[in-house]
Amino acid sequence: MTQMTENAHLTEQLIDDIADALAQRGFIQLPHFLPVWLADQLLHEAKRLASIEFKPAGIGRNNSQQLNAKVRTDSTLWLSGNSAPQQAYLNWMEQLRMGLNRRLFMGLFDFECHFSHYSTGDFYQRHLDAFKGDTLQARSNRILSTVFYLNPDWGKNDGGELLLYADEQVSPLLIVPPVFNGCMIFLSDTFPHEVLTSRCDRYSIAGWYKVNGNAVEHLDA
Ligand code: OGA
Ligand code: MN
Q1: How many whole angstroms separate alpha carbon 221 and alpha carbon 59?
Q2: In the prediction, which pLDDT does 77 show?
């Protein structure tokens, strides 16, 4: 029997920790983000949909697919909320959105996210999720990036680490293994990042909190 998705609630402590880290450093690495039963359900969901519904990244929401082809090679599927685990994840992220707005006045308005699947050989080159000062541009109303990982068997030789950089720095600020139930949250226009070539099947959910195109409120770390 599946658990009631309504039962998943973030603790005030977790929201406090995330808010404090974002205000002080602009990023946080969380080793245990979701209740394990929910992470399990999302992994099954990702695997179930990967073979039938995931599409090469870039298709769907923007027109720069050709451009993307050399930059990233993963396959993605936007969460629509049309299953219990997807609803539970979107609900969890909505609680976090409201909690962060209450604490940091970030004016986060919306959240969108997609499953990603990296097969062996797939990568995502160094990039920013949003560009400073471009908040009014359609693709750049992303304020906060979230990446949630779904790989219970990940090992040190499997590649696919997320490298997070400070500005133009050459060496990474942080190397994040994509291990099960881990989550990275960081300011979208502040930290360039890349996904190293994966040497196994790598599943994740990448998401973005966005501001309303009209309301440009912004947190400076
Ligand atoms: C992205 C991204 C990082 C990761 O999808 O924009 O940077 O670790 N993903 O999957
Ligand atoms: Mn990114």
Answers
A1: 32
A2: 96
Measured CA to CA in angstroms, residue 28 lies from 18, 36, 79, 125, 164 at distances of 7, 20, 23, 21, 11
**pTM for this model (two decimals):** 0.90
Interval 155-212: pLDDT, tens: 999 999 999 999 899 999 999 999 999 999 999 999 999 999 999 999 999 999 999 8
Q: Round to the nearest angstrom and report the end-to-end CA distance of the chain.
A: 44
Give the integer Cα–Cα distance in Å for 221 and 172: 18
d(CA 221, CA 25): 6
**124 in ligand 1 pocket by Cβ < 6 Å?**
yes
**C-beta atoms surrounding 219 within 10 Å:** 18
Q: Is the CB of 116 under 6 A from ligand 1?
A: yes
Rounded Cα distance, 91 and 181, in Å: 16
Query: What is the dihedral sign for C-alpha 195, 86, 57, 203?
Result: positive
CA 147 / ligand 1 centre spacing (Å)? 6
Nearest-angstrom CA–CA distance, 112 and 108: 12
Paired residues of 109 in beta bridges: none
Domain ranges of the chain: 2-59+71-210
CATH class of 2-59+71-210: mainly beta
The response to whether residue 150 sits with its C-beta less than 6 Å from ligand 1 reads no
Task: Determine the distance separating the centroid of ligand 2 and the alpha carbon of 132, expressed in angstroms.
Answer: 15
